[in-house]
């Protein structure tokens, strides 16, 4: 197991290096001059050049890149051009709201998706199956921004049951977590049903039924347990997508998280914050995939030797 983990860790190093290059190149290809933004529109060319020198933007790109990587390894992502606070402080304030929103969305989406998927698999070809898959397809089809605005109009504007946005109480979590998790629940339901149906066609399941094993034991002991192994991978991947996909939801519900901070930073061309956020989102996705691979190896030891 340790050898497998070591191989996976070593394999992430080239990915992280390539990722840092892409993030740096992407940010520097964005239109606009950060030195002009910091100095102000009325600044003279000399003032703009002085700001450019102070920010290190007059240096060659390769030197800027290595300075960026060196500082990032130490947790120093520079200073926000908009607030003049350190990027670490800006991200630190927004990190936990995004994590909590993602966790709550993932919990309800996983539970709901598994229940719908298992029910559809058990009742394959019946009205429960068709209803569950109709709900799943509908959940995938709804755009997050449209669903969020619809929920705000219904439960906040018309009924007054929930706040339109913000962060702090459990009421603030209801609509954002539902909006963010609906698509994941739909994907989980369809994936679980497919895995469940595939397992029921295996010989050992047919043998158990032929021996007269009660159906509930066939479902819970033989079928569901084995069907959940590939679902582990799906849960991890969807968790990573939720972290990145929270941008739209946080903007719609004025959620003080990393997604909204990224949108505000792009609008202001706050390059240090943009670089740090994209890098952090990407690293989170890589680490989640690594954790999923390890969990999958624990659940299915056969893949450790491939």
Automatic annotation (TrEMBL):
SUPFAM superfamilies linked to this entry: MetI-like (SSF161098)
Domain ABC transmembrane type-1: 95-292
Subcellular location: Cell inner membrane; Cell membrane
Membrane topology classification: Multi-pass membrane protein
GO CC, one annotated term: plasma membrane
Keyword terms: Cell inner membrane, Cell membrane, Membrane, Transmembrane, Transmembrane helix, Transport
PROSITE patterns referenced in this protein's UniProt entry, alphabetically: ABC_TM1
Keyword Transcription regulation: no
A Gene Ontology biological process term: transmembrane transport
Family: Belongs to the binding-protein-dependent transport system permease family.
Function: Part of the ABC transporter complex GsiABCD involved in glutathione import. Probably responsible for the translocation of the substrate across the membrane.
Name of the protein: Glutathione transport system permease protein GsiC
């Amino acid at each position: 197991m340790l050898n497998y983990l070591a191989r996976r860790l070593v394999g992430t190093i080239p990915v992280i290096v390539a990722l840092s290059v892409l993030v740096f190149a992407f940010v520097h290809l964005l239109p606009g001059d950060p030195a002009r933004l910091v100095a102000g529109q009325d600044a003279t060319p000399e003032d703009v050049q002085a700001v450019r020198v102070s920010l290190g933007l007059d240096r060659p790109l390769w030197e800027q890149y290595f300075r960026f990587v060196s500082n990032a390894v130490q947790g120093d992502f520079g200073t926000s051009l908009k607030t003049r606070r350190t990027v670490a402080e800006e991200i630190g304030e927004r990190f936990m709201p995004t994590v909590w929103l993602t966790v709550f969305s993932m919990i309800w989406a996983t539970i709901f998706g598994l229940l719908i998927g298992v029910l559809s698999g058990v009742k394959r070809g019946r009205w429960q199956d068709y209803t569950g898959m109709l709900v799943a397809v509908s959940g995938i089809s709804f755009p997050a921004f449209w669903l969020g605005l619809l929920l705000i109009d219904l439960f906040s504007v018309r009924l007054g049951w929930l706040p339109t946005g913000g962060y702090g109480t459990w009421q603030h979590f209801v609509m954002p977590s539902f909006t963010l998790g609906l698509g994941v629940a739909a994907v989980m339901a369809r994936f679980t049903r497919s895995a469940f149906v595939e397992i029921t066609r295996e010989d050992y399941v047919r043998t158990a039924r032929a021996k007269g094993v009660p159906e509930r034991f066939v479902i819970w002991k033989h079928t569901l347990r084995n069907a959940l192994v590939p679902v582990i991978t799906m849960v991890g991947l969807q968790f990573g997508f939720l972290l990145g996909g929270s941008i739209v939801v946080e903007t719609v519900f004025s959620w003080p998280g990393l997604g909204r901070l990224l949108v505000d930073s792009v609008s202001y061309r706050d390059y240090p914050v943009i670089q740090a956020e994209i890098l952090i989102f990407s690293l989170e996705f890589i680490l989640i995939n690594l954790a999923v691979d390890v969990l999958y190896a624990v659940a299915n030891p056969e893949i450790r030797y491939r």
